[in-house]
Write a structure and sequence with these properties.
This protein is of the alpha+beta class. The longest helix is centred in the first third of the chain and has 27 residues. The chain has a 6-stranded antiparallel sheet. A 4-stranded antiparallel sheet has the order 7-6-5-8, with no helix packed on it. The chain has one domain: Umud Fragment, subunit A (Ribbon), CATH 2.10.109.10. The chain has 1 helix and 10 strands, in the order αββββββββββ. About 25% of the residues are buried.
Amino acid sequence: MNDFTGEALDFLKDIIIILVIVLVMRTFLIMPFKINGQSMYETYYDREFIIVDRFSYRDLPVFWKTQEVERGDVIVFAPGVSDERKYFIKRVIALPGETLKIEWWNVYIKAIGEEDFTILNEDVYLSDENNGDTTVKNDTSAYVYEVPENRYFVMGDNRNHSTDSRNCFQSCSVRTNYVKPDEIIGKVLVDLGYFNFRNFTFTHPELDISTKPKFFSGLAEYDY
């Protein structure tokens, strides 16, 4: 075997190893996404790049502690309602077995075992425009959702411009209001922002705002 053949085989081996590592990481650990749409304004913006943690929610052997989906987590999931919009990004609002009520622009939660609803404090992650302005089809009357076991109720932070659990992500004749665990890709881990190559800045070309990377300081989760 001459030197050229040996170097070619080494190069091919390195490429295969790299491809296997990338494949394993994308399948089991992390996955990059580009946000398309305004449903999470002002937490995440259109065209921003994010890294999704695919590992934390996975069912693993009992000796490895995994995370539960928690209220406040921002998740990426595939509701199966559109070939054009395969993945959605929303925030988890209600957990399995809870009852959620939307009435007079506010969100209320009745936890398991509780008799009364408690208003949900969302001022940390909702903008001034959206905080206290949650409705269903602009109707201020009461809408009550009883979240089934092993299901989640999610909404976008940009409440007036979000297709989410309130309308079954498109139409309630197509699917239910709730997200199943096997539809969840993972939760947002890193926000890389949007880089404008034309101006060589992190300024969004349409919104004229800064979309610098937030990395681990973004509101990808919120503890109540």
